[in-house]
Structure formats: C-alpha cells, structure tokens
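Hi R.,

Here's the chain you asked about this morning:
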Amino acid sequence: MKRILIAEDEKSIREFIVINLKRSGFEVVEADNGDTALKLYEEYNGNFDIALLDIMMPGTDGLEVCKQLRGKSSTLGIIILTAKTQEMDKVTGLLVGADDYVTKPFSPSELMARVDAIYRRVTLNREYAEKSKDKGSVITLGDFSLDLRSRSLTKKGEQIELTQVEFQIMEFFFNHPNSALERSEILNHVWGNMYYGDDKVVDVNIRRLRMKLEDDPSSPHHLTTIWGVGYKWLV
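And the predicted structure, written out as tokens:
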C-alpha cells in the first residue's frame, strides 16, 4: 500500500490534497501541525513512502519537521509546500533534506506529477537495493567508494549519510568521472524529464553534497562547477 504523511494546517488545502492523493491510490495519514506529524510518523514506525509538508505551520514548522524526518530516514521521499514569496524557504528546505518542493497555488496535475515522481524513485531505489544485494558492485574513485548494493558512500572508509536524491546524483557523477554534466542532464536523470520545476533544485543539492563531501565546501576539489554548463566530479 502506498502511504503518505501530509502535514498542512489549512483545512481546505489539506482536504483538496487528500482527495487527489486518495484518487491516485494513496493511503493518507493527515496532520494539521508539525508536532502531530512527528508523532504520527513514530506511531506508524516510519512506515511511509512520502511526507508532504507545508512550511508555514503553527508550533513546529515544516522545515523543522523535514529536518527531523530526514534524520530518521534517508529513503523517505519528502516534498515541501511553499508560497511564491518563500524563495529562501525552498532553498532551506532542500538543504535540510527535502527531495522537492511544490509552490502554492498548484494544480492537481502538478501536485500528483511531483508525488508520483518521488514515489517511483522511492520504489525503484528499494527494488534496486534488493536486486543488488548479491552483486556487491562498488565504484571507487580516489578516497571515495560508492556501494551500489547498500546505496552508500564512504570517504577514506568513513560513511557519509546521503539521501536517495544525493545518492542518485553521486551515482551519475561516478559513472561519468571527469565529465562535465549539464544541469539539465542531472535534472532529467534524477528527477525525470517530466519534472515541473527548475534546475535550482540541482544547484541546492550540489551545495548540500559539497557540505558533506568536501574538506572545504567553499573551494571544492572534487565537485566542481563548470560555468555556463553544470558540474564535474574530478578524480
């Protein structure tokens, strides 16, 4: 059963979202604030595929909920809901662990396209990990080793926690070392060619990866920028 946790304090918006999610076959667990969302996550033992979180909520806001949920699970798909005026919140949300964002107001088709894309990614990652259990495929580049079986990355033997999106980006880079990859290529590979958003989501995830991987994130040695094009992983 596809299960999604939704945290949205505006009842009319929440009901609108719930109707569309149920029509698409999701089991929906509702919360009208962040604190309740966190409690429900624990009550269900984290058995969710996706969390859909509004940023502006009373008490514990969506950004904090996102941060806490990501700390509990690297595989949970997380989408944040933002207003057009909350540009910095989009960036912050991605930095603390969200996979994607949807800007209000949104159409049912846009919302479901985003949710379905995240769900496919979650499902495919689970299937890939299961199929790869006995393959033991590891890509090693310098100090870094990417384990395709466990979906993990180590630097000098120390494990680095990655979200599923971050892992997919790194897998793309490791399969194309020393090659300049355009933002659009990364976007299509990870988020799919039907993605509604812009390539800002790529830039923010690259920034987040640098913070985890580079000795000096402000002067990256491996994950470098190719101005006017995109990014390159230097070995």
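The first helix runs from residue 11 to 23.

Let me know if you need anything else.
M.
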